[in-house]
Every structure is written in structure tokens, then in C-alpha cells.
Specification:
The complex is a heterodimer of chains A (114) and B (110). Chain A is built from no helices and eleven strands. Chain A is mainly beta and 114 residues long. In chain B, strand 9 (85-92) and strand 10 form a beta hairpin. Classes of the chains: A mainly beta (114), B mainly beta (110).
């Protein structure tokens, strides 16, 4: 099976702009979780979608949002970008809802906000 | 805040030696998982141990779990240069999300 894919891999934006990141899960997986990784805060959970429904949300401001389509592909959007949003954004897919089983991670999207 | 804290933060060993890293967590868990990350890339799942298990093996990996002490350890035997990476423990507390520790950076010298 093909692994989890994320696009784009690298992105440079300026403060105030918005950005949309995409994640295609492994075929058959219905759960997609998003994580933000920074040197200072480590890996932090953003949200999880399962069968097009947001199941859980981490402690992030409303500028961070996401959605999942009927084919399980997911997008996350960050509006009004801030310098602190510079990070590696990872998505992970799993067959069951996040946490209960193995999560398979994509290579990540590295976002730089100038 | 991080649920899991890894110890040590960094570890440097020679090829062929064993590497042990520890993870402590704060609340009760359903399972604990270990992941590896190479140079800021995606994470690779290594092993999952459920709360009712005490030890698990996978190839050169051995994981133990002590729920009374809220701690786990990952042992990599006969390490190789290719094992150089960051290792993270992650806990499932039933909140439908994994909570990751701060990671241990392992450097294996050839």
C-alpha cells in the first residue's frame, strides 16, 4: 500500500497570510490526525478527523482548522499566520480512531512564516 | 504540556552497544507506543504495548512497561549507525489522541 502523503513538502509564507496543507491517508484508513512539531514545544496534537467528523481537538487557537473529505483525504488550514506558526506539520492516518492503534505518519510539511 | 518525558534527552554510543531510553508519563494509559524520527522527517512506528502487557519484543527492540511506576523503557540491542534518530514515546489516554514525549536523540557512532 502507498504510504501517507502530504503536500506541499515545503512552504514559505508571510505573516497575515493563510495556508492550506493536504494529507492523503493510507487506503482504507478513516482516521487522520494532525500534529505540529516545533523545537520548543515538541509534538503537539492539533485535531483528529474520523469519517469526516472532527473527533478531537488540541489546545490551539481557532486560526487552526481542518476538514476531511469522503475519500478520507484531509486538509488543515491556518489563517492569519504568525511567526510562531513556523513548524513541521505532520499528519498521521490509522484504521481506528487515533490513539487506539498504530498511527502511520507522512513526511510532513515544513512551513516557514516570515 | 507533555504527558511523557524521555530520559536521557541525548545519548551517544558506539556501534554494537545497547541503547536504553526511558519514558515517564503522568496519567493512566490504554497503550504506550514508541516512534522513531530521522532528521525532522515523519515518524515511524516501532512498537505498541498495551497497559496489561509488561514486555514486548520486536527484532532488536525490547519494550517494558511498568504501569505502577508510570514508566516505560525502550532497549535497542546491538545498535547500528542507521539507528541514529530521535525516539519518542507516545501515550493513548483514551482521549482519541496520542500525547508525545519530548524525545531522546540517539547518536550511534560507527
Amino acid at each position: 500500500k502507498a504510504g501517507v502523503t502530504q503536500t506541499p513538502r515545503y512552504l514559505i509564507k508571510t505573516r497575515g497570510q493563510q495556508v492550506t496543507l493536504s494529507c492523503s491517508p493510507i487506503s482504507g484508513h478513516r482516521s487522520v490526525s494532525w500534529y505540529q512539531q516545533t523545537p520548543g514545544q515538541g509534538l503537539q496534537f492539533l485535531f483528529e478527523y474520523f469519517s469526516e467528523t472532527q473527533r478531537n481537538k488540541g489546545n490551539f487557537p481557532g486560526r487552526f482548522s481542518g476538514r476531511q473529505f469522503s475519500n478520507s483525504r484531509s486538509e488543515m488550514n491556518v489563517s492569519t499566520l504568525e511567526l510562531g506558526d513556523s513548524a513541521l506539520y505532520l499528519c498521521a492516518s490509522s484504521y481506528t480512531t487515533g490513539g487506539e492503534g498504530t498511527q502511520y505518519f507522512g513526511p510532513g510539511t515544513r512551513l516557514l512564516v516570515l | 504540556s507533555q504527558q511523557g518525558e524521555e530520559d536521557p534527552q541525548a545519548l551517544s554510543i558506539q556501534e554494537g552497544e545497547n541503547a536504553t531510553m526511558n519514558c515517564s508519563y503522568k496519567t493512566s494509559i490504554n497503550n504506550l507506543q514508541w516512534y522513531r524520527q530521522n532528521s525532522g522527517r515523519g515518524l515511524v512506528h516501532l512498537i505498541l504495548i498495551r497497559s496489561n502487557e509488561r514486555e514486548k519484543h520486536s527484532g532488536r527492540l525490547r519494550v517494558t512497561l511498568d504501569t505502577s511506576k508510570k514508566s516505560s523503557s525502550l532497549l535497542i540491542t546491538a545498535s547500528r549507525a542507521a539507528d541514529t534518530a530521535s525516539y519518542f514515546c507516545a501515550t493513548d489516554t483514551g482521549r482519541r489522541a496520542l500525547t508525545f514525549g519530548s524525545g531522546t536523540r540517539l547518536q550511534v557512532q560507527p
